[in-house]
Amino acid sequence: MTRSSARARPDRGARSRPGAALRASARLVARASGRLRRVAGQAGSASVATTDPAARPLPPRRPAGTPLARHRLGTGPGLPALAIAALMVLIVAMLGVEQVTGISVLPDGLSAGLRPPPKKFPVLPASRPVGLTIDTLDLRAPVHDVGIAPDGTIAVPDVGRAQEAGWYDQGPTPGQYGPAVIVGHVDTTTGPAVFHQLRELRSGDQIEVTRTDHSVAVFEVDSVERFDKGQLPVDEVYGDFSRPSLRLITCGGRWVGGETGYSDNVVVFASLVKARSGG
User: Which of 122, 186, 192, 230 minimizes the number of CB atoms within 10 Å of its CB?
Assistant: First the structure.
């Protein structure tokens, strides 16, 4: 946001509502993050079977199909299994072609999660963030937890703590697999807030998150995007669990007032590249 855009606001009175500009997109964040956590939990437990030791074993399942069909198919893996195996061999071969030639031959939708990440990265145990440092913006700010507000949205930082950032505590901590989400105000009625300059970040800039275990997770900016609050691409912002990542979110665009506040969200996409001891 620029100061000129602030002067163009048709409804400056709405600005006095604490967090009004961030709450318009917070419901999407909460809904998406909750859904993704359930999916991640199901994926993590999908291969774990638990049984009651006292329970009697289930009777063997009867093979599907008629005796004639079973006789023709025999006891081998069957056509579906062979087809899947052939497809996997083809995918592995195509990935090999990509690594040798550098040419992408797999569709993006098919290869999601299959290609190696652009850089090696650590994976950190869970630890809550307590500080945020961005040297290129001369930004050093405390980070506190924010959860779910009574209306079902993310509880954005109180206007009295506008110089602090808020980590959404229903998602991953910075350094775990998945996108850790940190939100902050762009400004208040009294002036710039913690994420006032967020849109000035560029690809390659580094973001450091200090955690309660005294480690520092170092993220590298991939891109800075601006989305209309009514058209936020939920899967793009919150759906990547292929590596540890970070999303910094604030408001941007023009001031429209009311419950929406600013028309857009500014979203910083960043990936974990290293970690170090904070001393």
Answer: 230
Report the chain's terminal Cα–Cα distance, integer Å: 36
User: What is the DSSP code string of 28-58?
Assistant: HHHHHHHHHHHHHHHHHHTT-----TTSPPP
Let me know: does 130 contact 210? Beta carbons within 8 Å: yes
Query: CB neighbours (10 Å) of residue 229?
Result: 20
Q: Find the length of the chain.
A: 279
221 neighbors 269 (Cβ within 8 angstroms):
yes
pTM: 0.62
What are the tens digits of pLDDT across the range 5-34?
333 333 333 343 445 556 555 555 555 555
Report the C-alpha gap between 178 and 41 in whole angstroms. Answer: 12
Beta bridge partners of 137: none
Tokens found for residue 238: 């919150």
Task: Single out the residue of 143, 177, 244, 217 nearest to residue 37, CA to CA.
Answer: 177
Query: Do 174 and 211 contact (CB within 8 A), yes or no?
Result: yes
DSSP per residue, 174-200: BTBSEEEEEE--SEETTEE-TTTTGGG
Domains and CATH numbers, the chain: 3-42+120-277 (2.40.260.10)
